[in-house]
């Protein structure tokens, strides 16, 4: 009727015009313009669930759900009419039948309880339908969270998040039960289910049905009341209640009182390279919970088990709280002055006696950008050496080198959003579901809901392998061959992007010639991949609207790691998959700040921002700024430092935030070299294996105890803020490094990390516009950042990072992987796992994580187990030419044939993978070939305790479905559409939303 | 040559050191808040002399038990009624316009005065006297108010 009166792009809601874009629902329009419409089950990260009905509004006179009703131009909407309000109130009354409002004594009463706030908005006065407890006890089996069915309003948010956002597919609601409830694996105790403890369900729960256990009895002033007191109190309140509005008033006062004692601090996760950010809630030193926020640029509300629950290490009893000095056969606690004096005098002495290049600095990819910046400045300007490196040498340097050769920048081409929107995702030698869990959720979601295609190349059929359209098991170490063959086939078919290659890429002819030998037959023979599959892969890339290739250690930790990374870039260049959205190369960085450590110059050949040490102009710039003369030649990398120690050339080492004794390959050799150091400083949170070799151990502070920035795998710089005071006498790494530098005569005066960032930004062009102000709160910047603050989410849109702006196809040859000899008959693979980070120095400090995974294990295929008479729990000894380990077996079909997989989560040297690995390495970057080892196996015990407990998610049984299946709720006999109750007889609102 | 060692000799501050440090912290805080502390000490002394401190001590020490007793009593239906009626009365009061109530209560007070004076006189009011009084404009005003009240209450009852 009034449709023509308004411009096509607006709706009129409650007598106010709202512009909108096509496809938006009414609730989305309202939310995006900060206009409140009541809702409970809708969540902007989950979309409409349609189970609660509190968002009912009148659209052109018809009662419909605003969450799922798409707006049409000129719609006239009323959310505050008598009829709409009656419908919303009726919906709320139905929810409250399932939920007792005892807000003041509820740990979720923190001002952000969706149910509380909506009930208050709707001015609920009394319970229309009597509260009915459900006939199920609370489930408290899981170490990190509990489910209370009696408080559960069955909105389905948790199910939606588990099924379609995290895509672990554990939670369902069985609407056919007499009293429906949320089920794990269809009815298992939570701890025994396939739940990966990612916390999505707890985060999205709009009330207190799902709560972090760390919140219970802690968050409120009155929530620690024992049950024998609490229950009569609730009875009393209910018996005498004058109406809910008064109760809400009291609970709001209580919630307001909580704000002064619960501190909410934005932080960035300290584990993997995905770069999740979220709030951490603390009360004193207690960490109450991690509270994700939709504004977080990478992860929104998503987390994994470590990010959501793995923070116990911060308050661990085992944290170092005083400097330690080696005295004879023991370490003695010392004051900072004693420790600093000793370090300054020893390093000074060694520098004087043997020269600055006799000292090396190992920086940390767990530490901030600012700390890496100050570390390289310390090495170069104070000690006077380029012997500075970080742990990317162990993992990502080949990927960086491969990209710098071809496209010019060693970083991800785009963002997690490009990966989520790609037509095809190819994962090579990576296990994102465990190593980059939140990034994997985006792939799983796109694959499940949007039919994104997924190809996985891996020795193990891990979770993404299971889900893939095409899972391919190549012969170990042959990725370069299939990549080259697929590229050749694409060119032979004329499927290559000719315009792109002509305009934007150099080296075509030489490159095409280099592919000659990579025929399908040759590739099939070497890789074990069938011709038809190679053709299918080529066709899928050809047909896809944007291909993203994700890779990790399965590619890089080989002697040909750089070349295989190069082959990936070549394939993407040939198919035009650079410089456009939803495509490109994505090396998945392993540590939270492995990207940033490299970016800020803890590399022997690079100053901050990848400017070459050897470039005179670059050096001159830093010499002017720092007022010193800088060393001219690239220094030693990690690997070369260890070699230099054994050759007697490197005499002292300063290492922080790195467990080198366990994570460098061939650890027997590394430990032996540490013994030869004249002076060794180790700076860490804990007394690590590496620290055992130190002369001075300095107590450092973790991310929650300092300010700084991290750069994630996307090149995204994000700020984290101090939530707690440093424990004991520990100090932030940047402060310690400044203290040491000043003892050695530097006279630096950085008062805050922002001053270090300002200095780096003034010197390194790619960070020109990075400032702490531009990174305030949830804001982030993806480098290169121009001086005006404009950043670069997508690289190479106009030009590649070479002087002529063109990419370079770079011919590469396959390198035969290392094999120790015929007697070593089993291939040994290794890697990370979900619950622990690396060797577990941080994660084993969590009781809950250790409950889920207490130790490392060796995966053995069912075939091999049968052949050798093994079962889960058997104890075996593995021997390589470099050492041996004793580990317990887990029989699984994740691995096949004579391929073994040893998880790296151990602090026990007797079980550590790097007792077995060699010192061979990538030719270009010296990254160890961790993934190239074969071993022989000896059975020590046929039977024994299984290494993994039955309460591990790997033994659960998923229950996949799309969403919460609200249609089944609507089919229940006891479901009467609300419009029917309000208007009598009308059945609108039953699953029919678009009009 | 540095072999791996794991033995750490903690410089555990002895009990005296810890105590000395704690006392120092307290003294610093006390000196900074001298005025307030002296007043507080006086208040505490008064509470002690009045026996209130001991009472509070007993109450706090046994708070769980007392709380349970209290709740048990409060959960009896009689007690619930008292609370509910109490809250109802409070709500009733919240609905009254204080200005109007003041006028009415003022009138009632005058009425009470008059009535008690009349009681002293002990005069017998016959039917005639009653009718005569009805003509009194003040009595008429009161009756009018009463009638309006009854009408309003009737509306409330029928709603």
Can you put this structure into words, describing what you see?
Chain B: It comes from Tumebacillus lacus. Chain B: This is DUF1641 domain-containing protein. Chain B: Pfam families: DUF1641 (PF07849). Chain A contains 33 helices and 37 strands. Chain A has 995 residues and is of the alpha/beta class. Among the domains of chain A are: 1-96 and 977-995, Roll (Ubiquitin-like (UB roll)), CATH 3.10.20.740; 324-394 and 594-761, Rossmann fold; 397-587, Dimethylsulfoxide Reductase, domain 2, CATH 3.40.228; 826-950, Barwin-like endoglucanases (Beta Barrel), CATH 2.40.40. In chain A, the strands form 10 sheets. Chain A has a 7-stranded mixed beta sheet with strand order 14-13-27-26-25-15-16, sandwiched between helices. In chain A, helix 10 (369-383) packs parallel to helix 28 (733-743). Chain B has 159 residues and is mostly helical. Among the domains of chain B are: 16-61, no CATH class; 97-158, no CATH class. Chain B is built from 8 helices and 1 strand. Chain B starts with 7 loop residues before the first strand and ends with a helix. The relative contact order of chain B is 0.03. The model of chain B has no long low-confidence stretch (mean pLDDT 86). Chain A binds chain B through residues 226, 228-229, 232-233, 235-236, 239-240, 242, 322, 324, 326-327, 329-334, 671, 674-677, 680, 687, 689, 692-695, and chain B through 1-11, 64, 67-68, 71-72, 74-75, 80, 83-84, 87-88, 91. Strand 14 (330-333) of chain A pairs parallel with strand 1 of chain B, so a sheet runs across the interface.
């Amino acid at each position: 009727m009034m449709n023509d009166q308004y411009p096509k792009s607006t709706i009129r809601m409650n007598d106010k015009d709202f512009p909108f874009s096509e496809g938006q629902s009414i609730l989305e329009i309202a939310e995006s313009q900060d206009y409140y419409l009541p809702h409970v089950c809708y969540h902007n990260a989950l979309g409409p669930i349609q189970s609660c009905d509190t968002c009912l509004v009148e659209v052109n006179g018809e009662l419909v759900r605003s969450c799922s009703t798409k707006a049409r131009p000129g719609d006239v909407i009323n959310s505050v009419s008598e009829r709409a309000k009656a419908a919303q109130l009726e919906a709320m009354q139905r929810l409250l039948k399932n939920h007792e409002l005892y807000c003041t004594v509820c740990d979720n009463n923190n001002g952000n309880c969706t149910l509380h706030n909506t009930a208050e908005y709707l001015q609920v006065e009394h319970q229309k339908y009597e509260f009915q407890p459900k006939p199920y006890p609370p489930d408290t089996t899981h170490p990190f969270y509990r489910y209370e069915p009696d408080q559960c309003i069955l909105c389905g948010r948790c199910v939606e998040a588990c099924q379609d956002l995290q895509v672990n597919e554990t939670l369902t609601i069985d609407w056919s039960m007499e009293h429906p409830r949320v089920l794990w694996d269809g009815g298992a105790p939570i701890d025994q289910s396939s739940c990966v403890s990612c916390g999505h369900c707890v985060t999205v729960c709009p009330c207190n049905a799902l709560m972090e256990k760390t919140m219970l009895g802690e968050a409120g002033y009155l929530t620690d009341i024992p049950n024998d007191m609490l229950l009569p109190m609730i009875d009393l309140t209910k018996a005498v209640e004058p109406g809910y509005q008064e109760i809400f008033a009291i609970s709001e006062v209580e919630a307001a009182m909580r704000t002064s004692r619960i501190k909410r601090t934005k932080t960035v996760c300290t584990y993997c390279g995905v770069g999740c950010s979220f709030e951490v809630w603390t009360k004193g030193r207690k960490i109450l919970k991690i509270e994700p926020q939709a504004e977080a640029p990478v992860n929104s509300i998503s987390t994994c088990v470590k990010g959501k629950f793995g923070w116990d290490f911060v308050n661990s009893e085992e944290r170092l709280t005083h400097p330690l000095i080696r005295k004879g056969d023991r370490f003695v606690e010392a004051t900072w002055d004693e420790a600093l004096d000793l370090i300054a005098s020893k390093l000074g002495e060694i520098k004087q006696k043997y020269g600055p290049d006799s000292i090396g600095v190992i920086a940390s990819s767990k530490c901030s950008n600012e700390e890496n910046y100050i570390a390289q400045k310390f090495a170069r300007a104070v000690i006077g050496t380029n012997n500075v490196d970080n742990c990317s040498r162990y993992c990502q340097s080949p990927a960086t080198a491969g990209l710098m050769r071809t496209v010019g920048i060693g970083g991800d081409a785009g963002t997690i959003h490009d990966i989520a929107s790609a037509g095809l995702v190819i994962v090579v030698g990576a296990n994102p579901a465990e190593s980059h869990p939140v990034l994997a959720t985006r792939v799983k979601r796109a694959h499940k809901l949007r039919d994104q295609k997924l190809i996985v190349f891996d020795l193990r059929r891990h979770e993404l392998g299971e889900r893939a359209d095409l899972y391919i098991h190549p012969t170990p170490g042959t990725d370069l061959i299939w990549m080259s063959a697929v590229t050749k086939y694409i060119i032979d078919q004329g499927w290559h992007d000719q315009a792109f290659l002509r305009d934007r890429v150099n080296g075509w002819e030489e490159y095409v010639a280099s592919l000659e030998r990579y025929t399908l037959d040759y590739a099939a023979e070497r890789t074990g991949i069938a011709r038809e599959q190679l053709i299918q892969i080529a066709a899928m890339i050809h047909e896809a609207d944007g291909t993203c290739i994700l890779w990790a250690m399965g590619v890089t930790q080989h002697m040909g790691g750089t070349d295989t990374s190069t082959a990936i870039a070549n394939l993407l260049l040939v198919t035009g998959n650079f410089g456009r959205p939803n495509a490109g190369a994505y090396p998945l960085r392993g540590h939270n700040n492995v990207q940033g450590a490299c970016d800020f110059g803890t590399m022997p050949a690079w100053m901050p921002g990848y400017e070459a040490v050897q470039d005179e102009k670059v050096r001159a710039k830093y010499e002017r700024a720092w007022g010193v003369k800088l060393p001219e030649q690239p220094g030693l990398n990690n690997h070369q430092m260890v070699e230099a120690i054994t050759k007697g050339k490197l005499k002292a080492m300063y290492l922080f935030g790195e467990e080198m004794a366990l994570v460098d390959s061939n650890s027997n050799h590394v430990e032996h070299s540490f013994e030869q150091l004249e002076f060794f400083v180790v700076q860490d949170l804990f007394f690590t294996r590496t620290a055992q070799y130190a002369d001075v151990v300095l107590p450092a502070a973790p991310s929650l105890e300092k300010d700084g920035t991290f750069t994630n795998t996307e090149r995204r710089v994000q700020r984290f803020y101090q939530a707690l005071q440093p424990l004991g006498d520990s100090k932030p790494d940047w402060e310690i490094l400044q203290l040491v530098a000043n003892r050695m005569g530097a006279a630096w005066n950085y008062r805050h990390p922002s001053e270090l960032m300002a200095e780096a930004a003034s010197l390194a062009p790619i960070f020109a516009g990075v400032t702490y102000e531009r990174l305030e709160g949830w804001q982030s910047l993806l480098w290169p950042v121009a001086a005006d603050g404009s950043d670069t989410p997508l690289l190479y849109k106009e030009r590649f990072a070479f002087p002529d702006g063109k990419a370079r196809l770079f011919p590469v040859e396959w390198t035969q992987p290392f094999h120790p000899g015929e007697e070593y008959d089993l291939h040994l693979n290794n890697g990370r796992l979900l619950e622990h980070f690396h060797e577990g120095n941080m994660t084993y400090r969590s009781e809950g994580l250790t409950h889920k995974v207490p130790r490392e294990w060796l995966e053995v295929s069912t075939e091999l187990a049968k052949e050798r008479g093994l079962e889960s729990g058997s104890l075996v000894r593995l021997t390589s030419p470099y050492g041996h380990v004793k580990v317990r077996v887990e029989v699984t079909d994740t691995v096949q044939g004579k391929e073994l997989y040893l998880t790296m989560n151990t602090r026990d040297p007797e079980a550590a993978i790097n007792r077995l690995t060699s010192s061979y390495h990538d030719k270009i970057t010296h990254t160890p070939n961790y993934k190239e080892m074969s071993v022989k196996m000896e059975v020590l015990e046929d039977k024994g305790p299984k290494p993994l407990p039955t309460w591990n998610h790997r033994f659960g049984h998923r229950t996949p479905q799309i969403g919460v299946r609200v249609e089944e709720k609507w089919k229940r006999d006891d479901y009467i559409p609300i419009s029917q109750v309000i208007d009598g007889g009308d059945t609108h609102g039953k699953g029919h939303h678009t009009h | 040559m540095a072999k791996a060692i794991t033995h750490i000799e903690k410089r555990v501050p002895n009990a005296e050191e810890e105590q000395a440090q704690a006392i120092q912290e307290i003294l610093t805080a006390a000196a900074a808040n001298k005025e307030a502390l002296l007043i507080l000490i006086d208040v505490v002394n008064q509470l002690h002399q009045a026996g209130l401190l001991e009472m509070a001590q007993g109450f706090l020490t046994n708070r769980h038990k007392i709380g349970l007793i209290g709740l048990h009593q409060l959960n009896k239906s009689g007690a619930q009624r008292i609370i509910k009626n109490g809250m109802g009365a409070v709500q009733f009061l919240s609905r009254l316009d204080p200005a109007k109530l003041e006028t009415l209560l003022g009138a009632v007070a005058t009425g009470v005065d008059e009535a008690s004076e009349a009681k002293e006189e002990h005069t017998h009011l016959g039917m005639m006297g009653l009718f005569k009084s009805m003509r009194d404009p003040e009595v008429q005003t009161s009756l009018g108010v009463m009638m309006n009240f009854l009408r309003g209450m009737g509306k409330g009852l029928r709603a």
